[in-house]
Structures are given as structure tokens and as C-alpha cells.
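== Item description ==
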Amino acid sequence: MDKIIEAARKFNERHERLKKYVHTAWRMPLPKWGQFAMGCFYFSVPVVGGWYVMQWAIGKAHKSIGPKGEYLQVKEVQGIGQTAIVNGETKRIGAGGLGMGVKLAVSDKDDQERSKRMLAKMLKENKKRNQKVKEHTESIDPVDSRADGEMV
């Protein structure tokens, strides 16, 4: 463990020396295009690095589960809410009662229909309210003022 900490400390010291050298010995004012180029460079380094990390992760995933999941033992999982059909067998997922896991949110067809009706009602009320506000603001005449400051 001490070797790892010492190696990290040495790396940090060398990195600090390199940064100081680059930012002092090579210091010269950059024109606008140079500042833009350096900004693009500093922006692109983590983007390109992240892309390579994602490609590495995708390769690892393909090795472990296959490009289309061919290596998975359980390929089909179906069901809704707290039940799932795994290989033709219905299994209960989530809480089995008091203090026995997480209770999953369940949404069957009736819940979905009720939610749609409630959302439509709320949107309709919002539309009415917005129309009333718009009519109210249009009905108020803006105050005219004359050049001499007398109000009409």
C-alpha cells in the first residue's frame, strides 16, 4: 500500500513540475485564434477520452453478455408491476409484506386510464386559467401619456 501512495505522490510532484514548466517557460500571449484553438483542445480531451472509455465498456459488455445478449442465461423477462414471467414461471418481485423489501410502483390499465383523465382535466383547467389571464390583460388599457405629462 505504501508503494502505491508513494507512486501517486511522485506522479503528482512530477505533474506539478511539468505544469509549472509548460505554463511559465512556454508562456507567450496567444492571439484570439490561438485562444480558441486551446479552448477547443482543452474541451476535446475529456470528450475523446470519454468516447474511448465508452468503447472499452461496450467491448467488455459484448464479451460478457454478447452483442445481442446471446450469453445471458435468462433471456426473456415479461410482466407488469410486481409480477414477472421468467422462463414461463410467474414470480413476485419487490415487497412480500411488511418489512420485506421495497414496494414497487404498480400501474395497471385502470391506473393508467385514471391518470390520463386526471392529466386531461388538469390541462383543460390550465388552458381556461391562461385564457382568463390573457383576456384580463387585454381588457386593461395601457396608460397613455402626453408629451406634457398630462394623463388621458
